Each structure stands twice: as C-alpha cells, then as structure tokens.
Amino acid sequence: MYMVSLKQAAGLGMEELDSLDTITAELLKFIQLKNQRLYTHSIQVANYSVSIATKMGLPKSEIEQIKYAALLHDVGLLFVSNTLLAKIPYLNRAERGLYKRHAAGGGNMLENIPCCQDIIPSIRYHHERWDGSGFPKHLRGANIPLGARVIAVADYYDMIINPSTEFWAKTKQQAVRELFSASGLLFDPEVVKAFIETLG
What we know:
The protein is mainly alpha-helical. It has one domain: Hypothetical protein af1432. It has helices spanning about 5-10, 20-35, 35-55, 60-70, 80-85, 95-110, 120-125, 145-160, 170-180, 190-200. The longest helix is centred in the N-terminal third of the chain and has 20 residues, at about 35-55. The radius of gyration is 16 Å and the shape is globular.
C-alpha cells in the first residue's frame, strides 16, 4: 500500500529532491487535489504546531522542522480512499486498520530523502499517545519525539473543532476541556498547557 516512492508520488526528478520546501509544496498540491478538507486541516495543524513550539521556547530550527512535519503529517493519507476518509470517525475494524497505516506510511514515503530525515519521526509517530495507547509503536511519554507530541495536540484540536465533521463539531471551550481531560493521559501535559495558553 505504501511502497510507492516519493519520486513517483510527487512526480519529481531525483535532482529536485534536495529541498524540503520543494518536497512539501509538491506534496501539498497532491493533498489538495485529493481532498480539500485534508489540505486545509494540514495547513491549520501546522499553524497550531508552530504556535505551540514558539510558546514552548523551542529553537527556531526545531520550530521549522515541526512546521514541515505538521504540513506533511497526513501525507500517508494520499493512499487512503476519500470514501474511507469521509467515514471517519465511523470506521469499522478493518477500515481502522487501513487508516492506522498512514502514520508509518507517511514516514516511509520520505525515508530515502536526505533532507527529510529530521521530520520523519514527527510524521511517523504523531498518533502515539502519552499513556502508550497510540500507534504505530505504542510509544509512551518522553519516548515520543517532541515534534510528534506537539502535532498530536494540534491535530486533535483541529479535528474536534472542525464543523464539517458532525461527530466532533466541538466549540473552542469544549475542545479546551477535552484537552485538559486528556492532558497527562493522551497528550504531553506541557504541550497541552502551551497550546491552551496560545489560545488566550
């Protein structure tokens, strides 16, 4: 399912695969063509992630890495049908299995590209959870890369306040309460704290 190379996916020549800007821009084009909602979500998660990382006082270089990883955190969903995506969160067991492959799959797409190495862990592990209940490796606590922990909070928040997803459609206040409840369980409490502070 994810054996396609980045060159095949983005239509780039190998001589062009030396710029993270170029790779990200090209893959975002494919994401937008596939699913406008997914594209908008990717942009918003990147915005939230940069705000969190900045609030946490991370170095500029690390903030940049988190930004690119957030923009491409769902790139593995290029190989998941729009029909299945439209059913989230009403997936059956088999469909959930297919969906869960996107995190590791997105990392696998980029693994042979030198300039992408620093962002791969944040893409691959953005669905890991603080208590070890996530996927694909059931990482726990600080064993989860910091970028992935940041993206996880931004991703969840944007998903549950998205009014186009009837199942979620939370208000800002409801979403903040959910993040508070999940702090220290699903999400890094320091990341949650920083994010809520950015919301004002």
